[in-house]
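Give me the fold.
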Amino acid sequence: MNPRHVLILGGTGEARRLAETLVQEGELRVTLSLAGRTASPLMQAGDVRRGGFGGAEGLARYIRKNGIGILLDATHPFAARISENAARAAKRAAVPLVSLERPPWHAVEGDHWIEAGNTAEAAKLLGEEPRTVFLAIGRQELAPFAARPQHSYIVRSVDPVEPAAAPANARFIHERGPFDEAAERALLENNGVEIVVAKNSGGDATYGKIAAARSLGLPIVMVRRPRPPASGAVATVEEAMERIRHLACLPAERGE
């Protein structure tokens, strides 16, 4: 294995920043893997591959075949399956795993959160009375809301939603973040939104809807994130960089 060849499991802003920084420094070889769920991802730095690996064993084979020395999981906090496979593959291939876990949001004064364990529970928590709902959960988990047709839905996603997965009485907005509080407040007010459904993904890029709901006094059904499989995760890009540099036997700071 080459300790200076890093495989980044990406799809997040943090992964993109890490790849860009490592490529610019020029001391490590960087391969960035995208799951392929977004049809038109942003430009990425380094060698980029798209698509799955075929589970943990497939990822372990890829690591061994390509001489990967460090595996970095910088996927979305709700990409639980990928993170589980990363943890198992790192053990099978005997390479160190660095997990970047973005800190979750926490309710503050003025927030009205109703916590849900998953999107199916979130759909039930909307109640029977018809409401206008802003679904800020992407396009992968809309099926539970299709079973609650009494509500009107505003669905935002980067890519178009497949008709079969779309809930009835839904309007679709195709946009890519970040979204600030002012824009989110306008969206909620202009569409008469009465309740928001969100995943607790954390980070600044999509916090605008949380702040906007608070300012308007709207409740949020907040889906709890799955528990990460790896322990000892880092919380910031800077911490991830420090861990990678240590594992690759590089100076703690460039130029040291």
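The chain has eight helices and eleven strands.
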